[in-house]
Specification:
Elements lengths: L9 E6 L8 H10 L3 E6 L9 H8 L17 H7 L2 E7 L1 H9 L5 H7 L5 E5 L3 H5 L1 H12 L3 E2 L3 E4 L5 E5 L3 H12 L9 E6 L4 E4 L2 E3 L6 H12 L3 E6 L9 E4 L3 H11 L5 E4 L6 E3 L18 E3 L3 H5 L6 E8 L3 H11 L4 E6 L11 E8 L4 E8 H18 L2
Parallel strand pairs: 1-2, 1-3, 3-4, 4-5, 8-11, 8-13, 11-12, 13-16, 16-17
Antiparallel strand pairs: 6-7, 9-10, 14-15, 17-18, 18-19
Helix pairs in contact: 1-2, 1-8, 3-5, 4-7, 8-9, 9-13
The structure holds flavin mononucleotide.
């Protein structure tokens, strides 16, 4: 995330009393690094887990904790409620969420939430049984019904030592959701999105393949941004990384990718084909490892499956393709947009140092079937992904 993304935005972080309280420090760091102003408030129980001193040091401001103290330490709850553009509770305990759902206000965090009309983001963290318990789920549903945004906890090792759902979402994910809410881009809520990523690997023999330099980073960024904006995301990728909050389907070859996409696209609203699918694949796959000899060998390649063509246009599915070209970028993109019946195409110039395949940066041109053209300059892939989603959203909703 660039330094200015949240420049001057006012975020109040409420910390409640769970083991994950110390992880709020990373979230505060992420927000201040992105330019946000942060004020921290602690429940009395949270003060048993983390100290105000540490939080003052990372937020550069006094921490609001004891709201009954004479002159109050730090801000008052009304002052904070009016100051905050957004309130995020990190971590949100089962107890604090129950209080928020019921409108209880018996300490500064719940008191500030009740006194504010700012958007509320909740990042729950707790034992898996506490989290899946009906009471907790009912409170979460009530809070969602009142437009609270919930950053779902991850599945993983819990404080108890066992594995389950209830681990606090990563700091990056929480900051990304806060950014989406603050920028008015939590607009993919409920949308079912499928993204393909990475270069396909076409087997030569059991240990070798023909591939390309695609790292899967652009596809992953597209999947992560969509998830932060509220979409239900499936990532079909040759470079699995188990991203939080995203359903991942690892694949190898183009044929495997097609099978996975057939399944993932059923009922989906948007397909983004960011994968670099090999145009050719070995005609024959050797059953056992080819032995090294002193003689050259010929690898006979056949045209590979054309995934977009094989999937075909589907009712209700908005289809986004990628074109990696070395020359005549716009003309090639336009031609591919038409021949593959795409709704939108993202064209990137390959062969330029420091962007595109394998890089953390990209520069692209987006062209929609309805005539929208957006040039996105060289930026980190995460930011390029954000602008691509803006273009998809504009095209889908306004037919631009
Ligand atoms: C060691 C310890 C760890 C705890 N961790 C959690 C937790 O991760 N999540 C949670 O919801 N409650 C947790 N609790 C229970 C809360 O601390 C307890 O419900 C408390 O009343 C929460 O107060 P608050 O919501 O006002 O901060 C833990 C309790 C203890 C003693």
């Amino acid at each position: 995330m660039s330094e200015s993304r949240l420049q001057g935005r006012r975020v109040a972080i409420g910390i409640s009393g769970g083991i994950a309280a110390y992880k709020a420090i990373e979230v505060i760091r992420g927000l201040t690094d992105a330019g946000a102003e942060v004020r921290v408030m602690l429940t009395p129980e949270a003060m048993r887990f983390v100290t105000p001193l540490t939080l003052e040091a990372v937020s550069y401001h006094p921490v609001a904790a004891d709201w009954l103290a004479a002159q109050g330490a730090g801000e008052t709850h009304i002052g904070l409620a009016e100051w905050a553009e957004l309130i995020a509770i990190v971590p949100a305990t089962a107890n604090t969420m129950a209080k928020l759902a019921l409108g209880l206000a018996d300490e500064i965090v719940s008191g500030t939430v009740l006194a504010s009309r700012a958007p509320l983001v909740l990042a729950p963290a707790m034992n898996d049984v506490m989290y899946t318990q009906q009471q907790t789920q009912d409170h979460l549903a009530a809070l969602r019904g009142r437009h609270a945004v919930v950053v779902e906890p991850a599945i993983g090792r819990l404080a108890s030592g066992k594995s389950g759902v209830g681990r606090l979402a990563s700091a990056e994910r929480i900051v990304a959701v806060i950014e989406a809410v603050l920028s008015g881009r939590r607009n993919l809520d409920g949308l079912r999105v499928v993204v393909s990523a990475g270069g396909t690997r076409e087997a030569v023999d059991p240990v070798r393949y023909v591939g390309n330099y695609s790292s899967g980073k652009m596809g992953r960024a597209l999947a992560e941004v969509a998830a932060a904006r509220g979409a239900d995301v499936t990532l079909v990728t040759t470079v699995p990384s188990n991203p939080e909050g995203i359903a991942e389907m690892p694949v190898g070859s183009a044929a495997e990718m097609l099978t996975a996409l057939e399944k993932a696209c059923t009922g989906a609203d948007v397909l983004v084909m960011a994968a670099a699918v090999a145009d050719y694949a070995p005609d024959q796959v050797a059953a056992s490892k080819l032995k090294r000899t002193d003689q050259p060998i010929d690898l006979h390649l056949r045209p590979n499956v054309d995934i977009l063509k094989a999937l075909g246009p589907r009712r209700g599915l908005f289809r986004v393709g990628f074109a990696a070209e070395t020359d005549e970028l716009r003309a090639q993109a336009q031609q591919k947009l038409e021949s593959k019946h795409l709704d939108l195409i993202v064209a990137n110039q390959v062969g330029v140092d420091g962007q595109g395949l394998g890089s953390d940066f990209n520069a692209v041109t987006v062209v929609s079937a309805s005539g929208l053209v957006v040039d996105i300059p060289r930026l980190p892939k995460w930011e390029v992904a954000g602008r691509i989603w803006d273009a998809i959203d504009t095209t889908r909703n306004r037919g631009a």
